[in-house]
């Protein structure tokens, strides 16, 4: 089983959380943190909005609880491999889905 997170592209005030297509950190809720903790030692696959393409994959580095009850998740070992989500994943509950591993996309030289 693999873990997929659906995130929104940041508005200008959150651009510092991204380096090109690489997600550096994420603010989230307790519901999603429980899922992230389950896969803490595995690669998480990040996709944007309604697209099937994986923009990057990450490993969790740190999880910090904020005073407002949300969490800040910082990532390490960020990769931008060319993958897409498998068709078996149809929906994301709260920005999170579990399913089969991503499918590699061949790159034409």
From the N-terminal CA to the C-terminal CA, the straight-line distance is 31 Å
How much of the sequence is in beta strands?
35-45%
Mean pLDDT over all positions: 86
Quick one: overall form?
globular
**Extended strand count:** 10
Number of helical runs?
Answer: 1
The H-and-E topology, N to C, reads as: EEEEHEEEEEE
Alpha-beta content class: mainly beta
Major sheet size, sense and barrel closure: 8 strands, mixed
Radius of gyration, in angstroms, nearest whole number: 14 Å
Contiguous runs where pLDDT drops below 50 for at least 5 residues: none
Helix content: under 10%
Structure in words:
The structure is a single chain. By secondary structure, this protein is mainly β. Helices cover 8% and strands 45% of the residues. It has one helix at 30-38, and strands at 2-7, 18-19, 22-23, 25-28, 44-48, 53-65, 71-79, 83-84, 96-99, 103-104. Strands 1, 4, 5, 6, 7, 8, 9 and 10 form an 8-stranded mixed sheet that branches. Strands 2-3 form a two-stranded antiparallel sheet. The longest helix has 9 residues, at 30-38. The protein is globular, with a radius of gyration of 14 Å. The N and C termini lie far apart (31 Å). The model has no long low-confidence stretch (mean pLDDT 86).
Provide a concise account of the structure shown.
This protein is mainly beta and 109 residues long. The protein is built from 1 helix and 10 strands, in the order E-E-E-E-H-E-E-E-E-E-E.
Features:
single chain, 10 strands, globular, two-stranded antiparallel ribbon, 109 residues, 8% helix, eight-stranded mixed sheet
């Amino acid at each position: 089983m693999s873990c997929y997170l659906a995130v929104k592209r940041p508005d200008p005030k959150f651009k510092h959380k991204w380096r090109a297509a690489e997600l550096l950190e994420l603010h989230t809720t307790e519901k999603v943190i429980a899922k992230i903790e389950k896969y803490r030692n595995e690669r998480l696959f990040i996709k944007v909005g309604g697209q099937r393409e994986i923009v990057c994959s990450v490993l969790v580095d740190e999880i910090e609880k904020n005073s407002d009850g949300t969490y800040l998740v910082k990532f390490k070992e960020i990769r931008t491999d060319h993958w897409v989500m498998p068709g078996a994943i149809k929906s994301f509950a709260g920005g999170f889905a579990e399913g089969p591993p991503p499918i590699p996309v061949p790159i034409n030289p």
